[in-house]
Amino acid sequence: MKVTAEKDEKVANMIFASIYPLYLNRLEKNGRTKEELNQVIEWLTGFDNDALQALIEEKVTFRSIFSKS
Questions:
Q1: pLDDT, mean of residues 49-64
Q2: Residues with Cβ < 8 Å from 55, sequence gap 6 or more?
Q3: Who is most buried in 3, 16, 19, 29, counting CB within 10 A?
Q4: Rounded mean pLDDT of 28-36?
Q5: How far apart are CA 67 and CA 63, in angstroms?
């Protein structure tokens, strides 16, 4: 798969709250937990569980998440 500016833009504009449940579902099917997912997200972004929940409630984009981290 070739990464293009258009694909980067499409991902950047995705709402994190709409993707997070898909990540969680996929991991739970593979025997992982929500806590593990949140731990990885915290490691990548610096956002703890409370901050992560606030981002989900605010329906921020991936662009916003990575510009804030």
A1: 95
A2: 16, 17, 47, 64, 65
A3: 16
A4: 97
A5: 6
